[in-house]
């Protein structure tokens, strides 16, 4: 029996469990609480910055993987020294742990991306600003950001004085994009690669709110290019498992890499229902060295809408009673305003119909959340 | 959060877990071992014939359901007396606990079924034999049988002398059938009912080996009749949850009820991939009082082939490498000759292609089993 240990107990780890049950894999979770979203299965409570604790967890499994990118490099290297198999590898993960490393490595590979520069308080010069096209531009904390946290649109140096006091900041060109895309794919240790159709994502305040799959009315050349780009990144960096490449489609017809994630990703949730193989199953297969599954679609279109705050049983009930064909995924997280608490997927051959269904269903679930006095 | 307790730790309980994770239900299992197939989640080890143990388990959940029909009636009634919600109800379960009760109740409802008679050693008369059309006929132990166990084709009284010593035996007409069908459906406490397309099943030595969905080339009238029959049984008996009605399609164009199961059933596994809503999700939704999900198909056809003995990682790997579009479900049971260890599903619009894929994949997995010296 293949035993997979997952560092992180969030919804991404949670959603690997159904796939593991089908595959017959033993999955266990290393999380900061016994009440984590993924604590449906055996959970070790610990601190992922503590090498000894992670090593002890890793002893019982064949391969360790991740539901987030925040494990420090010294812990990853310590695991390798301890004989633990890590997928993806520490060298691959270095790019998502620190976004300034990602920019440097992607530049080295010749991957198209926004103009960027790393600044400190003493190097925040007019030249640095001009290198990313002037103000306004994007500032990112290189380490630790997620879901819009650690990202700011800035109009002057003073907008990030607090960050500059802490360390280097990544500045990026404010790209003139028509929309954002995300290319999901997976690579296994044998070199097999499989990609899903590139999707369109919508963000609200830096957080993914909706995904349309495949990206509607996309130039077929760009669809091919985004797959090729993802494959090149995965192969060049040896990213075993699922890789999400977030892209800008620019007004002048280019694809620029915005972010990378080396794990299942919010933008890929739609493929649990839409594709023969979900990103969670594919990730487990890849990190365990299995052959990859088919990424064919089972219907023409899919829509995913995120649910924020909480998913109450009453809200889900009401939405299901109107739309028996949708799927509501409830992460069972404690309610908190703005928190990703679940998502809804609808798939079918009529895009506008499933979009309407998903959005109305999300409204129904949301109304119940606010009715319960969380806002 | 809806909390569902499942009595029984087999593969049916195991396969409810992925659905529970998506729905955000808390499921826990009452099983005879911590190593049961379903012990992926919190498992209480106990004896389902011991009321006190089952009562203690039930304290922590909102509703109790089952992955088998062997819980004695006094335990079920004791749970009801203890204020536990049971779905399906003890009165419904009485029919699957004791097949002679099923025959009597279905006769009372006017449901078409094979001719039957209950005999004891002192009532095993020529008249009894003639009532079921003479020898050869089918003999069934009323209680405790499954997967062909407790069922015999008999040519004389001496073939079941051992059973008659133990108690009454159910004799049934040996039906002249062209094939066996199974109608899966679900009913919730609000009276909502939903059925999947009736499937064709093949048995080898009384054990399901293959399922074709929907039943190929079935007269549309019979497809309607089988749904109507299932609905009538579910509603008349108030069977909350999934109900499987196993049917004979006779040479003279009738449908006769062979067996009932009030839980997810081997013949419904194909709908995990083929339908919008799996039987496991539907069962949980129904027993928890949720609205039912859509039973629409996502492709034209589905094939399921059971895997016996064991599913090795190597066998699954080999099969996956040839057929990336199939799904192999590994129940993680300890290897034993003849034991249901998993199943394979393929879905698509070309029936003969998916049938070939499934059968070849099953052969590949089987070869690995026998290579490992289990035979």
Number of helices of chain A: 12
Name the CATH homologous superfamily of the largest domain in chain A. ATP-grasp fold, B domain
Strand count, sense and barrel status of the largest sheet of chain A are: 9 strands, antiparallel
The tally of strands of chain A reads 17
Flag low-confidence runs of chain A: none
Order of helices and strands of chain A: EHEEHEHHHEHEEHEEEEEHEEHHEHEEH
Per CATH, the architecture of the largest domain in chain A is 2-Layer Sandwich
The helix content of chain A is 25-40%
Distance between the termini of chain A: 46 Å
Number of domains of chain A: 3
How large, in whole angstroms, is the Cα Rg of chain A?
20 Å
> In the CATH scheme, what's the topology name of the largest domain in chain A?
D-amino Acid Aminotransferase, Chain A, domain 1
- Assembly annotation: homodimer
Biggest interface, chains and residue tallies: A-B, 41 and 41 residues
Please identify the top-level CATH class of the largest domain in chain A. Alpha Beta
Structural class determined from secondary elements of chain A: alpha+beta
**Averaged pLDDT of chain A, please?**
95
Strand % of chain A is 25-35%
Shape of chain A: globular
């Amino acid at each position: 029996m293949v035993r997979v240990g997952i560092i992180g107990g969030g919804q991404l780890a949670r959603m690997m469990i159904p796939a593991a049950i089908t595959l017959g894999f033993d999955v266990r979770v290393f999380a900061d609480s016994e009440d984590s979203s993924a604590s449906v299965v055996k959970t070790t409570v610990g601190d992922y910055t503590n090498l000894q604790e992670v090593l002890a967890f890793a002893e019982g499994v064949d391969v360790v993987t991740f539901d987030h990118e925040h494990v420090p490099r010294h812990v990853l290297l310590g695991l390798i020294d301890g004989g633990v198999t890590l997928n993806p590898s520490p060298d691959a993960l270095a790019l998502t742990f620190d976004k300034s490393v990602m920019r440097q490595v992607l530049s080295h590979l010749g991957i198209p991306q926004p103009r960027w520069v790393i600044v400190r308080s003493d190097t925040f010069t007019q030249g640095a600003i001009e290198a990313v096209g002037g103000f306004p531009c994007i500032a990112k904390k290189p380490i630790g950001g997620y879901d819009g946290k650690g990202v700011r649109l800035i109009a002057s140096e003073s907008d990030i004085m607090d960050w500059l006091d802490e360390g280097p900041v990544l500045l990026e060109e404010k790209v003139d994009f028509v929309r954002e895309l995300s290319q999901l794919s997976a690579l296994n240790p044998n070199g097999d690669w499989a990609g899903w159709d590139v999707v369109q994502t919508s963000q609200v305040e830096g957080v993914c709110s909706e995904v349309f799959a495949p990206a509607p009315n996309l130039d077929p050349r760009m669809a091919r290019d985004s797959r090729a780009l993802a494959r090149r990144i995965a192969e060049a960096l040896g990213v075993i498992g699922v890789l999400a490449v977030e892209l800008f489609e620019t007004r002048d017809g280019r694809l620029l890499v915005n972010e990378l994630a080396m794990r299942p990703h919010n933008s890929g949730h739609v493929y649990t229902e839409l594709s023969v193989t979900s990103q969670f199953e594919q990730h487990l297969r890849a990190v365990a060295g299995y052959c990859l599954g088919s990424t064919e679609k089972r219907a023409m279109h899919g829509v995913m809408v995120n649910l924020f705050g909480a998913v109450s049983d009453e809200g889900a009930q009401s939405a299901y009673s109107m739309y028996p064909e949708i799927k509501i995924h409830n992460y069972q997280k404690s309610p908190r305003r703005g928190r990703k608490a679940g998502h809804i997927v609808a798939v079918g051959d009529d895009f506008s119909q499933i979009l309407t269904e998903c959005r109305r269903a999300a409204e129904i679930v949301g109304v119940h959340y606010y009715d319960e006095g969380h806002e």
